[in-house]
Amino acid sequence: MDTMQAALSLLLGLFIGCSLTLLITLAINARNRARRDESTAIPIGVREVLAGIDDAATVLDASGTVQAISAAGEAFGLREGEQVPDPQVRELARTARANSAPAAETMSIRRGASAAETRVISARAVPLSQRLVLVIMRDITERERVEQMRRDFVANTSHELKTPVGAVSLLAEAIESAADDPEQVRVFSRRLTAEVNRLSSLTSRIMNLSRLQAADELGEVREVPVDEFVASAIEANAIQAGSAGVELVRGGMRGLYVRGDRQVLAEAIGNLIANAIAYSPRGSSVGVGVKAVADTVEIAVTDRGIGIPDEEQERIFERFYRTDHARSRRTGGTGLGLSIVKHAVQRHGGEVRLWSRPGRGSTFTVSIPIATVPADTSFPVEKRPRKPKKKKPKNPNGVLA
């Protein structure tokens, strides 16, 4: 009996001891968990992860104060010990913390001190503890811009193609209906030819623009004489200028070189000249000037036309944008010429600038990095008229003196 009581006492003591140990362990774990949840200390390994992230990332506490950031986070104004400047990011972190689950959102936030630097970001917040939240921000501005350009391009192209295609269809029906009237057939045929030419021009320009935007590299890149592609562009528009009563004037420096694709450059300058002719009054002139400025070559195309209002100058390089729709219809403009110029110049590492005043005209300046003269080529020199050789006077008998 005493042995049984001793055994029961031992088991009871063992149970009580284990229970107390379990309670103490649970209490210690709960205390540690509470301390961890209330702590703002960065968990082990998080800073190392932030150091290896290319995107902007930050760890925020409950008040929205930055506890740690990645290198890219500084571009968005994130500073350790300071509150996140954008309220949208703070709200996203608050939502993730309250739900104890990841939260994601696409938002527009300002980057840096400039209000113009608004970026579209895809942000994702993940709770690390009750107080800390990891927020990763991926800049998708360029992706969104390209996607918007694609949507606009498809919509605009469809709209622009409908007009000439519809006109061709109607004129074909009109020709069929007027088969017994030769004069009407000739009139409709001329209009049909004009619409087909317009459709062909539009299709060609769309293909050129798509090629410039899609190709990784330019086709045939070499040191190109500026005189060569400028002369080619002027020659290509000589007939249009003569029909419009506009004089083309070439001035500036000679013998400069740039590195690029001659055909693309000639088309870009040709588009500027054609645009200047279309918007110039009869009897005026269009000037094409070339000069070297530091390490660039500047090619300026100047007209004395109607000019471009200030509010439209920012949109002038957009695809299918026209400042004067009536004039574009008369001249057969597609609204793609200046967009092609912009992309062509950018593919050559340059830029195109615009100066314009309504009623005074416009100047489009293309700036492209200058290239050295090829070793086997000397600077071309302008041809000067040779002085006629002095002939010795003849005597009355026709014999040289």
Explain briefly what this protein structure is.
With 401 residues, the protein is of the alpha+beta class. It has helices spanning 2-38, 46-51, 87-99, 141-177, 182-214, 226-236, 238-244, 262-278, 310-313, 325-331, 337-347; strands at 56-60, 66-69, 103-110, 118-127, 133-139, 221-225, 247-252, 257-261, 285-293, 296-303, 351-357, 361-371.
End-to-end separation in angstroms reads: 165 Å
Mean pLDDT: 78
Give the SSE string: HHEEHEEEHHEHHEEHEEHHHEE
Biggest pleated sheet: 7 strands, mixed
What is the rounded Rg?
Answer: 37 Å
Q: Which structural class best describes the helix and strand composition?
A: alpha+beta
Total number of β-strand segments? 12
Number of alpha- plus pi-helical segments: 11
